[in-house]
Amino acid sequence: MATPSHNSKKWTRWRSVALAAGCLAMLAVAGCASSASSSSPGSTRPATTPTVSARPSGSATPASGVNVGEFNARARQAISAWKQSPLAKVWQTGLVLFPNDGFMYPPSGGFPSTADALAFKTGALVFTGRPPAPYPDPQVTWAGGATMKVRALGALSAFGKLLNSGSCPGCMVHSLKVTAAKPTTITVDTSRGQARVPAWAFTIAGVSTPVIQGALAPGSYATVPSGAPASQPPSGIVGVSGVQVLPGGRTLAVWLGRSPCDTRWGVQQYATGSAVVVGGWTYAPNSGAPCAASLEVGPVTVRLNAPLGSRVVLDAAGEEPVGPWITNR
C-alpha cells in the first residue's frame, strides 16, 4: 500500500474501508495448526500448544469448531496455487504492488473552500501551465538500495487520471487551474518491501499544497488480486486484513477483525520453505445471541520457527498474498 510523503485524509479513509471490507464475514470459528490468540482488543499472546487456542492466562482449552486438518489442507492448497501463479515468478525480482485506490493523494493542506473541494472531487480541472518534459530517469528504489528501471506516465497522462476522479451530475462547480507539474515520488508497499516510485506533483492555483498522482505506466508492474477467492474456505477459517513483519523477522503482527461478542480469537499458521499461510479464527460463546453490528480490528502476534526472509505470506481464506498495510519505518 502506498504512503505519500505527506498526510492524506483520503488514504486514511481508504485504509479504514479496506480493513472493514476484508473482515465483514469474521464471525466463524477455526482451528489452529499453530496459533496465537487473545481475549481483549489490542493484546496478543502466542499459543502454547500447536493444536489449541490459548487463554491469556496461559491455560489452554480447545476452541469450539477447531479443525486442524481442514486448515492444513487449505494451506497446502494455497501454497500449491501460489507456486503456479504468474505473481510467484516475479515476487522477488519484479515490481508487485498491493491493491490501492489509484495512488492519488489530495492536497495535504486541504482546499480553501468546500466549492474547491467539490470541483476537485468531480475532476473539474484545467491544465494551464507549460507542457512539462517527460519524467526524468524513472525508476523504483527499494529501502535496501536496490533499483529497477520502469516506464512512467507523462504529466498530461497522469493529469488525465485526475479528470476521471468522479462525477456529480447537476452539480454547479467551477474549474480549478492546474498551473504546474513537477516530478516527484511516492512510497508504496511492494512484495519486496517499501519502495519509492515515480509520481507527479500538480500545483493548483489558490491551493497551498500539491495533489500527488502516481505515474507508473501500465505494464510496468503487477498487482495482487483483490477479488473473491477461487474457492470458499472451510467453515471457521476467516480472512486477515494485513500483516507486519516485526524486527528480527521471526514475529508477524497479523491484523484480524472480530465482533464485540467474540471472547477469543487468534491466527493459525502453516509454514514451508517458500511460504507462510495465516488464517484467522474467532469464538463467540453465544453465537446465536444478538450482537452489535460493529467490527473491531487489531493485531495478533504469530511467532515463526525461522525468520520470514523472502517467503510470501498468504491468507488462507483468500489464497492470495496478504498486503502489508502497516510497515516498519
The total number of structural domains is 2
How big a fraction of the residues is strand? 25-35%
How many beta-strand elements? Answer: 19
CA-to-CA gap between the ends? 14 Å
Q: What's the Cα radius of gyration?
A: 22 Å
Helix share, percent = 10-25%
> Structural class per helix/strand content?
alpha+beta
Task: Provide a count of the helices.
Answer: 5
Described by the principal axes of the CA atoms, the overall outline is globular
What order do the helices and strands follow? HEEEEHHEEHEEEHEEEEEEEEEE
Major sheet description: 7 strands, mixed
- The overall average pLDDT, rounded, is 78
Which ranges are low-confidence, i.e. pLDDT below 50, for 5 or more consecutive residues? 5-33, 38-62
Explain what the structure shows:
With 329 residues, the chain is an alpha+beta fold. The chain has 2 domains: 19-93 and 226-315, no CATH class; 100-223, Lipocalin (Beta Barrel), CATH 2.40.128. Helices cover 16% and strands 30% of the residues. The protein has 5 helices and 19 strands. Strands 6, 7, 8, 9, 10, 11 and 12 form a 7-stranded mixed beta sheet that branches. Strand 8 (139-142) and strand 9 form a beta hairpin. The longest helix has 16 residues, at 68-83.
Question: How do the strands and helices of this protein lay out in sequence?
Answer:
Blueprint lengths: L8 H15 L11 E4 L6 E2 L6 E2 L5 E2 L6 H16 L2 H5 L5 E2 L6 E2 L8 H8 L3 E3 L11 E4 L4 E3 L5 H9 L12 E15 L2 E12 L6 E4 L7 E2 L18 E4 L5 E8 L5 E8 L3 E9 L12 E8 L8 E4 L14
Parallel strand pairs: 5-13, 7-10, 17-19
Antiparallel strand pairs: 1-2, 1-16, 3-4, 6-12, 8-9, 8-11, 10-11, 11-12, 14-15, 15-18, 16-17
